[in-house]
Amino acid sequence: MSPYPEKFGEPEIVVNKAEQTVDVTVTRVDASCEDSAVLVGIYNSNGILVGFRKITPVFDENGTFMISGVEYGGLNANTLKVFIWSDMGDIPYLDSPQSVDLN
Fold it and tell me: What is the pTM of this model?
């Protein structure tokens, strides 16, 4: 369980099935979490991680950060999950990952 459940809103995940890409928008609620990292995991139908991306966000003046064009084509991908952790990887800023079906 995250000790900081109010630091971020729920990520918005938009899937472009035609291009086999995903856009993720993260909104920061608390400006004290400058040390955050957005982790995007891509999983196959067996729940095995087949793709991974770690991004250190730079938030705009509204506290929003967008990751565009995360590719999942060719990975036999089934699910994408978004995690937000401290950049050191020791504190989860969301209680559970946000996930979306890619099929």
Answer: 0.85
